[in-house]
Every structure is written in structure tokens, then in C-alpha cells.
Amino acid sequence: MNLVESVRLGLRSLARAPGFSAMAVAILAIGIGLSTSVFAVADALLLRQLPVREQDRLVTLWGEKRDGSIDHWPLDLRSTEEFARESRAVQQVAYVAYEGAWPVAIRDGDRLTRLRRALVSGNFFTVLGTRPVIGRALRQDDNVVGAAPVAVISSAIWQSRFGGDPTVIGRRIVADEFNLAYTIVGVMPQGLEYPVGADFWAPYVPARLTAADDTTAYTALDIVGRLAPTASIENARNELTTHFSRDGTSAMSRELRGVAHELPEVVLGDARPAVLVFTAAAVLLLLIACMNVANLLLVRGLARTREIAIRLALGASRSRIVAQLVGENVVLALAGGVLGVGVSALAVRGFLWFAPADIPLLGRVRLDATVLAAAFVLTTVATLLFGIAPAFLSARANANEMLRSGARQSAGRGARRGREALVAAQVALAVLMLSAATLIGRSFVKLQREDLAFDASHLIVAELAIRYDRFTTPASQLPLVREVVEELRVTPGVQGVSPVVAVPFSGTGGWTGRARTEGQSAEDAAGNPMFNMDVVGPDYFTTFGLQARRGRVFTDEDRNGAEPVVVVSEGTARRYWPGADPVGKRLLTGATAADEFTVVGVVADTRYRSLRDAMASVYFPLAQSRFPFAPTRLAIRAAGAPADLVPTIRRVIDRTTPGVRLASAAPFESYMRGPLAQPRLNSMLLVTFAVVAVALAAMGLFGVMATTVRQRAHEFGVRMALGATPARIRTMVLGRGLAITCAGVSVGVIASLLATRALSALLYGVSAVDPLTFIGVAICLTIIALLATFIPARFGAHVDPASALRADG
After folding, report:
1. Is 84:228 a contact under the CB 8 Å cutoff?
2. For the chain, first and last CA: distance in Å?
3. Cβ–Cβ under 8 Å, residues 475 and 39
4. pTM, whole model, 2 decimals?
5. How confident is the model over 325-356, as pLDDT tens digits?
6. Whole-angstrom Cα distance, residue 190 to residue 243?
7. Alpha-carbon distance 671 to 449, whole Å?
8. ω into residue 195 within 30 of 0, thus cis?
9. Where are the beta strands (DSSP E) in 409-525?
10. How far is CA 242 from the centre of its chain?
């Protein structure tokens, strides 16, 4: 029998069992569809190459403290250039600003928007090996003091802001910072998302340095390099460690060691482990679906024993029987695969709808030829997994024995145990997936409910844009910020306002520093921990609802001419003055008397810069600020709904402070979406997969127990004729279902204890081997299994003994 004939007969046979066919196809469609959709995401984020040359040879490097207290320490420009000259492992060296893609105000006439700018070296794209779509890339002569400001833009901005117009080359975008009018010289290809979120790339030196020999300018850089042909990433890491420890370096530098990562790993960041977990979950779900269908086929094959026996007795060969059964399975797999593509399309659309916008490479996720080919492969694999063994098992039985024993042949102990083993395996995989989903879900809930240590309700975070072409120095900019703050303080509906250095959850975009205490030498101070630094107004602590734990907070008296003061957080106090009261102590940030500050108060550590970690902080009063910048972010407490106050804030700034505009303003809650977006997506997807897995496992258990009851109806009838009660029969069936479930749960819990350790990078506040989770999952699966077994058990308890004995006769 050829394949076409087998498929034709398979279609006819399946048409006679529409219920079975529909269930099998639906289960396969779910398994294949969800697996295909996850493959579409994995292909876009993990498998497809970035638009760079030999991406596996590209590395990014920075430093970290040997004691682990700081995991990302940038290099300055001089140190970066020295490493480039000395390195043998890194053949080509470029650099990128440590803060990554940072939002800047873009002025178009009187209209202000924000784009994320990445400052890079002139050879950045040469080292990456990336060619522009149109125009040219940056060059070395763009990255010198006095060079004309130029920029290359991302493909996404080219399409969204400029409509894909090829004449964009030569147009200008004016960054309000220092009034830099960048001329667009090129457009980069889609998928180049390093640093993550970059809308345009510009040369670092013209934006940061005003003179070639300026050694006072603050420069903080990460290295991007291409490994030499014979070098490894470990060689690059060791070379950077040696560079930090060379003669003549500072005490701080000698505390550092090199960190090196492959470029794709840095681009994907937190998304990489999540995608790997989703891929593993999709594979497990496909296995459960295939096991479920295999069980259905085994049950159907056993129900067709008499049909198969008659055909064998009439001369049909076993190979012909196997060919027909395989043909039926091919039809099921093809139907499931076709429907699965539709399920996959819906799943991908749902993923793109719920996925946070800042996931790198998200624009590449789609159902293309590669993904459809993967669906075909999954369909083929599913056919092999669920179709071959049941077909051979159904066709190999002895025809004479099948005809003599009739339907009860199907109740053989070996066949029944095989089906029960498949169900136990499904339960075990469901336990594994539900355990992972529970851990991830609990982590998300803990992160969502984490105490920020301040009152985030009714808070607005506003960003100011200053005309840097008119106000070129901090001395001219700071009065503008103070004027805005004073005007807003007396605005109806505003209960408090204060400048802040960074927007919430800014990570490396904030300002970090180190100080020393009185009596400490420079060498001793090099071992002091780093802390978050912020310049704030006297209303800052009222605005955030922060109470002084000791001492006092700032007042209007803390101005120029008064004693320089700071407020520290409990983490700073604990690390700089362990066991002592810090109030009245001196904190030194430099070598002169002007860099000495008296601690006047202590407040709680907050989670303003990082939701996962409460940071030690030091606060400086704006009125005494001597720092080389003007803070342009404001925290504002509204009396009512934050969104209702934004138009008023904009009008006050426009009316009272020429040279300053409101670039953006948003409720604090909107910033919470960023750090919660990836954990929320992780939780949602894994919970979805786990619910489907548990449902399939419950369906499998229900089917096996229902089949067992049908096959043992004669036995139950005999037992009841001999005095067994319906309760006894019901207990027997429930006990068997519970035994299958317990076997699966036991294996699943053991597997979970081993496998969930891989989730550690995605967890927060929950152990990967949390006993409460595994106990809860075991109880949950056991209850679901008992519910799935109850209906078959009830049916078995109502078998009529007389009818069962007559059927036997």
C-alpha cells in the first residue's frame, strides 16, 4: 500500500470517529502551535545573527570589584586608549558610553521630543562590521574635538520618524543638550540594537570633551572589541584584569578585575534566560501533547482489536494494517500542524501585544519561512512520537486470541500499564512546568509588592529641557532649575517638588560615587563602598514621604554660605560608620575643605534606582550644589490625580522660566512598568504553558481511567455480584488514579528540584528549591487528578452486575 492510499484510507477511518479525530487534532494543534510560536521568538532573539560580522568574535568588556560589591565599573577614555594599544587578545577596540542609550531632548523648532542617543567611538561600526542601509557609518575623524556633529540613525527611527525617506541623509536633528545640531549621515540596518534602545549613534568625543588635552572631563566607557583569531574571551578578560592591576594605577583600579561577555549576550540581557526557559517549556508541552495523543491512539487501537483481527483473519498483511494506521496518524499530524500554524499566529500576535517594548530585537519576531519550516519539522517529530508505536502495537497482536477473547483482550495488564505510564509521565512533566510557573509567578508578586521605602502614590517625574545654547555652564543652568522649583512649590495642586539626578529605575544611568571619612587615608578610602548620589531640594524628603530616622533632613537654611551638609541613608551609615551614630560625622568627597560635608540626618535606603535592590545613598542640597551639572529631573507630589496636574506644570514652566521647557512628565507608576515588564511576561507565559500542561495531563488521566473502567466492567460486575459495594469499586478506581498520579508527582518533584535551579537568574525573593512551592504543586496536581478520576470511578461504581455477566455470556 502506497502512502497516498494509506492517507486516503486514514481519512475515511477518522471520518467515522469525528469526536476522537477532533480531540486528537486539537491537542496536537495546541502543542505544535505553542511550540512554533516559541520557536519564532527564539529564532528572532537567539538563533538569527545580528547585522554584524562574525558576532561570536565580538566582546564587550568592563570592570567589577573583586569583592562583588560593584558588578559594572566603566573605564575612562585614557585607560580605554591604553588598553587598545596594549591588548593582544582584542584585535580591534571601540567603545560606547557606559550609560548606554540615554534619552536626550530633541528640538524641532519649538517642539520638543526625546530620542535615545548612544555615544560611541568613531570606529564603532567598523569594529562591529556593520554596513549602513544608506549613507555612511561614523568614522575616526568624526570623533575628535571640534569635529562637525554627525549621527547615524536606527532603522526603526528612519521608518517611524522619517517615513523611510532616502533623502534623510543631510537632514539635522538638534539635541538640546549643548545645542548640538547633528547632521544625519547614515541609517543602520534593522536588528542593530546595541546599546539596547538606541535611536541614534553619535561620536563620543565632541559631545563630552571641549579640548583634546582635557583630563578633568568625566568619561565612563565600556569597551567593544573583536577578538584576535587565536584569542578567547578568557584571554580578553585576563588582559583587562592585568590592565587594572598594572603599575601606577590607583588603589581603586587595583581592586577591579575584568568582565567580558559576548555581544549577543549583552544585547539580549535579561531576555536571554527567559527565552531559553520558554523554549524548554514549549518542548515539554509538545511532549505532553504527543503523549496524550499516543494514549488516545492506544485506546482507539485496543477498541479496534476485533476489526483488526477480522482483517488479519481474512488475509490482510500486518504491514498493510500498520500502513493504514500510520496513514491515519499522518492525517492527524498534518491537520494538527495546519491548525497549529493558526494557533501559532495568534500566539505570536499575543506575545507581541503583551511583550514589553524594550525587549531587544522584538521587531524581528514573525512567522516567516524559517518558522513555518520549524512547524513542519515539529509536525514530523510529533508523528514519529505519537504515531509509530501505537500502530505497531495495535497490529502485532495474535488474531486468533483477539477473536476468542473479544473486547476484553484490550484489558491486558501490559497494555494498561503502558497507558498508565504515559499518563504518569504527563503528570511528571506537568508538575515540572507548574513548579517553574509557580516560582516565576511568586517572584513577580514579590517584586511587585516590594517596599520602595517611600510613598510612590501621587508622584510625578518630570524632565526639563534647558536651552544649552543660551545657558552653557552649570553656574547659569542651576538658577533656572531653582526658579522652576520655586514656581512649582507655590502652584495650586502641588504638595512638594524637588530636583532629582535620574529618572526612577535608571540603573547605570544614575550617579554613583565614593567618599572617605575623617582620618581615612586615600588608600583606606579606596576600599569604601560605592553609593548612589543625588542633588535634591529641601522638599525632597516630604515629596517622597521619607522620614528622618536620626537627625534631620534639609531645610531652606541649607544654602550657599551655610555649613555644607548631607543626608545619608541607613546603608551608607552602616558601611561608613559601623556601629556608630553618623549624625555630626564628616564625609569627604575630595581633597579640599570645600569637599567636606557634615552628616545631619539619616533616612531609609530606597529602591528609586533599582527595584530589586535598596541602594545606599548620599543626598546633597541643591542650594549648596558645586557639582558640574544641573539636575534636570523633578519629582513632584500632586494633591490629586497626577495626570491632571501635568498641563498646569507645563503652563507654569512656559510662563515663568524662559529657556526651560517641560520635555516629559509621567506618573511614577508608569516607570514601574519597566522593571516589572519582563517578570510579568515571564510569569504570564509560563503560567499559560503550565495551565495547558495540567489540563492535558488531566485529560490523559481521565481518558485512561474511563477506558480502564470500560475494560474492567465485567470484573466490577463479578465483584459486585459477590458482595462488593459501589463505594468499594469507586475506591478501587480512585486509588488506581491516585497511584498513577503519585508516581507522576514523585518523579515530577524530583525532576523539578534538579531543573528549577536553572531559573535562578529569573527569580526574586524565592528559592529555586522552595519547599512550599513543591508541596503546593503536588497537592494541586493530586486534587486535579482526583477530580479527573472521580467521574470514571462513579461510572464504575454504577455497573449493573447482571448486565455485565450477560455481556460476558
Report:
1. no
2. 39
3. no
4. 0.79
5. 677 777 777 888 888 889 989 988 888 888 87
6. 35
7. 15
8. yes
9. 459-466, 494-500, 512-513, 516-517
10. 34
